[in-house]
Fold this sequence. Notes:
Elements: E1 24-25, E2 37-39, E3 57-61, E4 66-70, H1 76-81, E5 89-91, E6 97-101, E7 105-107, E8 113-115, H2 117-126, E9 134-138, H3 146-159, E10 162-165, H4 177-185, E11 189-192, H5 197-206, H6 209-218, E12 222-226, H7 228-231, E13 234-239, E14 247-249, E15 256-261, H8 268-279, E16 286-289, E17 293-298, E18 301-307, E19 313-321, E20 328-335, E21 337-338
Amino acid sequence: MLALTPAGRGSYGAAGAAVAENGVKKTGLEKSVSKIHVEESDEECGFAAPLRRPGSGYHVASSESSVLLTIMEITAQCVSAVQLSTEGHLMSADQPTILATSGGYKPGVRTALEFNALVHHAVELSGVSARAPRITHLGTASGDQRWFNNDISEAARVAGFELKHLNLFPMPNLGDAAELEAHLLAQDVVWVNGGSVANLLAVWRVHGLDHIFRRVWQAGVVLAGVSAGSICWFDGGTTDSFGPELRAVTNGLGLLPYGNGVHYDSEPGRRLLVHRLVADGTLGVTHCTDDGVGLVYRGTELIDVVTEVPGKSAYIVSTAAGEGPDAVASEQRLAARLLH
């Protein structure tokens, strides 16, 4: 369960946006841990500036030519009407962007919850200005619970966001696959809530969202989320989708070619399992977040580590030495930049 920690954050008006020497040697999780290799980095992460999405144009690339469409505001209907060649695709940013987190919410003042700094940062990464940010929330991993949808809607109202829910239970509420894609292409941010990542991935594939989200990502819509909504964008990670005992999931969408570890500081079993899975090759290099931390990717490159909670970090876990039962993993800590 994600712990909600209070922290302040500005809101968006209706008309615009404010703008860890030895590794873990294990053959199973039940084995004892020796030492976790941690390489500390006291510097702020020296990544490039966060990606900004242009607000003035969308680029259509085809095999024959490139056409620049200048669009002041685009709606789902407009996207549906754009005539693209079979080889072409709609581009709205130089490179795709993902914000993968273990946070995003805080207790509300007059509502059950409010969006914390990570959700606001997802909006900032989109570059939207001069109007209310458009966000679509997916609660697939928890079965599209309507009571939680209501809490998210209230949080969006407080923040000044224009938010819609894409529900897949009992059936898609926003139309068929083509209509879902058109809607998602017209968003600034897609935010995916936590729950069962195994179930989420299965349901998304039934509805073709695995392919749709790749195109939406390539088009520059910011993809973001918490817990299951973080793991889904990667090759895989650790999950309690199958029961209380944590297990590996390895059939993520693979937009980001790494494993992903969430709730790294609040659920100790996750750290141990990540080390074992990386050491035995089940997961490749794995990027992990403490609660309250987010990882920003431009394309498939990690460019920034941010946090809404002071003192939290991210980590990169990779194979260090050995093979088979003698394999060990090493962990590098990445300092996170505090969001205000």
